[in-house]
From TrEMBL:
Biological classification of the source: Eukaryota, Fungi, Dikarya, Basidiomycota, Agaricomycotina
Organism: Dacryopinax primogenitus (strain DJM 731)
Entries under InterPro entries matching the protein: Kinase-like_dom_sf
Name used for this protein in its record: Protein kinase domain-containing protein
Length: 316
């Protein structure tokens, strides 16, 4: 069994090499397909029930056509999305020899945040092996949602990096969407508070909440819902795609997860779209009626806290 001192010494050597020979734009990578193991069993789900909560005609995003050699992948890095030290993954936009754009998420442990001695006993839960395994399980458990609420997964591969480290990476669909954010200009000029503007935002709230509910119906608790991990697709109707499943877990109503509860993450995201008081006013009626999606996403205790926080803000 590796001691902390052995781990620290090797980690420091690996980080030095990773920083000396970093990934940069234009670097070619060749990967060999690998099976990433995971300890969590894949459960049976009611796919029809899950898909029934989505819009009747969701945007269609077909998979890339298969290549002549499905066991290998050749990529050229083009744009960095998340790179550098103290990152749980190095994420790049890349192109294939056929000029198709994909995203590659590399679990390069040398660039992970350092594990200190006090937390070394939990290292196995945050290693590259563990995080890639959790991500692999999430994509398999929610396989029915790939190309809908999840990017298409093109598989996990082993890559040799310029620093000669061998890492596992997930190759997936590139999502051409945008992160939603509060319309501060409309708040300044007052149009944000008009009834017309509020009615336009309600379908966005509804679709985001139902998308999280759909994910739960497929047996997956995301564990890190945030603005950076959700993309809204362009189009006349709101539609969302979830990213980053390295902290996901099996969904059960009473489970405590290692990531933050999805109800907390969802509330924070809804608060980027709409004012807190309007979010409470929007979710209160369906919760009182016992609608399943509302009960699934917001429990009584959380809603009481949200109501109190809104009332505290409203008091002079």
């Amino acid at each position: 069994m590796t001691t902390y001192e052995e781990y620290r010494k090797q980690w420091e050597l690996d980080r030095k090499e990773a920083k000396t020979y970093p990934l940069t734009r234009g670097v070619p990578l060749t990967g060999t397909r690998t099976i990433v193991p995971y300890d969590i069993p894949v459960s049976t789900i009611d796919v029809d029930a899950a898909l029934a909560v989505l819009p009747p005609a969701p945007p269609v995003r077909p998979r890339l056509p298969p290549t002549d050699d499905p066991e290998t992948v050749s990529l050229t890095l083009t744009t960095s999305f998340q790179t550098g030290t103290d990152r749980w993954a190095q994420v790049w936009l890349a192109t294939t020899p056929q000029k198709r754009r994909v995203v590659v998420k590399l679990f390069q442990e040398a660039l992970f945040p350092r594990t200190y001695k006090s937390g070394f006993e939990c290292y196995a839960s945050w290693s590259a092996v563990a995080l890639s395994g959790v991500e692999a399980w999430g994509y398999e458990q929610a396989k029915a949602l790939q190309g809908l609420l999840l990017p298409h997964s093109y598989g996990f591969y082993r890559f040799e990096l310029p620093c000669r480290q061998i890492v596992v990476g997930l190759v997936m669909e590139y999502i051409e969407g945008h992160s939603f954010k509060r319309d501060y200009e409309a708040m300044v000029d007052g149009s944000f508070y008009s009834m017309e503007s509020r009615l336009k935002r309600e379908p966005v709230l509804q679709q985001l909440a139902l998308s999280v509910y759909c994910l739960h119906l497929c047996g997956v608790h995301h564990g890190d819902l945030s603005v950076r991990n959700i993309k809204q697709l362009p189009g006349p109707s709101p539609f969302f795609v979830f990213l980053d499943f390295a902290q996901c877990a099996p969904y059960t109503f009473y489970t405590t997860w290692k990531g933050k509860p999805d109800c907390t993450g969802l509330w924070q995201c809804l608060g980027e779209i709409e004012s807190s008081e309007n979010v409470v006013a929007w979710v209160d009626p369906p919760f009182a009626r016992g609608e399943l999606w509302a009960i699934n996403l917001i429990n009584e205790q959380a809603l009481a806290v949200y109501r109190r926080s809104v009332n505290a803000v409203e008091r002079p």
